[in-house]
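Not sure how to ask, but would you mind making up any protein sequence you like and the tokens describing how it folds?
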Amino acid sequence: MSVLLRRIYDEEKILGGYRVLVDRVWPRGISKEKAQLDKWTKIIAPSSDLRKWFNHDADKFEGFKEKYLEEINQSPEAQYLLNELKEKVKYQRVILLYGAKDVHHNHAVVLKDWLEKE
């Protein structure tokens, strides 16, 4: 199947599939009813320290990606959740929802790449 990325604030219509919020913090102004999540996976979001270091600076994205993957690889809980999502991708569409404004330089992009690799 496929992995889609959607900024939770920009969703005009709710897409069908397994809907996962991949942010550590709940998005402001979005109700649980509006989000229609199947899962909220705070554990696979970047640490607060890494997020603050990155500060959504596109010039730091490659370094962020490297450090973020290190964090994921060092966390058995994150590995378990990602492997669970990877199994779901085999059978249904998975929609990774995030709040970042930059749609090209954020942790959901890294997660999508991770989930789609063989």
